[in-house]
Amino acid sequence: MAFPKAELHLHIEGTLEPELAFALAARNGVTLPYADTEALREAYRFDDLQSFLDLYYALMAVLRTADDFTELADAYLARAAAQGVRHAEIFFDPQAHTVRGVPIGTVVEGLGAALDRAEERYGISTRLIMCFLRDESAESALDTLRAAGPYLDRITGVGLDSAEVGHPPAKFREVYEEAARLGLRRVAHAGEEGPAEYIREALDVLGVERIDHGLRCVEDPELVERLARERVPLTLCPLSNVRLRTIDTLKDHPLREMLAAGLMATVNSDDPSYFGGYVGDNFDAVRDTLSLTPDQLRTLARNSFLASFLDDDEPRRERYLAEVEAYDFHLA
Ligand SMILES: Nc1ncnc2[nH]cnc12
Ligand SMILES: [Zn+2]
């Protein structure tokens, strides 16, 4: 579906399509342990978050130069534009690159080159959010924040991702305090595989403004009531939840119940190359499987802009919201 929308939960490394992975591997002299793109696609069968992360980090070996990151981001922006994305807040994982000897400056400058011309080329405004890997130490996260110092003019906020269970938000209290002092916006993955309690902790200890996923809040009615009352945005990723087996089938996704409870839900793609679709494909899937009404689709589109960090550019947000109001969602 190509109605106007913002995408707020998108790992740029998760947009690496098999064709680009092989092209970059050839260019950089990296040998992939797969015969061809079809064999690689065959490996996209995951039992849980960790089994996905193992492949996701391994494939990053092909990303080496600033140009590689520019190409990666350009490919995403072109696909996103075709699916109606007007604004994208894009995650990247600096530690997954610095550990391989690729400096954070190479990553930020490479991505930045694509984002700088995103508006002109694709009609998409962008923000960049750097994520800390929660299965690495808090010290490593703090080192990463310091290393990002020279690039903070390009970075809007910080996030927290990777293996969730056993790595509660509170582990990163200090680095989030420092991020806040630096004027960075704060989000965190919570309640994807981890318990509802991690969502509370992300809000109360890390001071986050949005929860990435937040799916498991539905297990805690009191938390649902709080999230609705405080209008805390949840960046849901329905196809990701099915592929990572957080839910059995898309029919089991609680999106309708979440909307009915007054939650500020948004729909996003997470790692679209790995999970079977970009954000428009996620919308198509939930519309068809959960029988969403045109009104519900409009609410989700509106939420995506309201939950965005466009509060530094209200005239633009108003323009996007006007596009949403003018769209005929019966056609969606
Ligand atoms: N869905 C996800 N959860 C946690 N970390 C991630 N990194 C990339 N995708 C992720
Ligand atoms: Zn994610």
From TrEMBL:
Ranges where the Adenosine deaminase domain occurs: 4-316
Keyword field: Hydrolase, Metal-binding, Nucleotide metabolism, Zinc
Annotated positions for site Important for catalytic activity: H213
GO biological process: adenine catabolic process; hypoxanthine salvage; nucleotide metabolic process
Catalyzed chemical reaction(s): adenine + H2O + H(+) = hypoxanthine + NH4(+)
Residue runs in coiled coils: none
Pfam families tied to this protein: A_deaminase
Annotated cofactor note: Binds 1 zinc ion per subunit.
Family: Belongs to the metallo-dependent hydrolases superfamily. Adenosine and AMP deaminases family. Adenine deaminase type 2 subfamily.
Protein name: Adenine deaminase
Lineage: Bacteria, Bacillati, Actinomycetota, Actinomycetes, Kitasatosporales
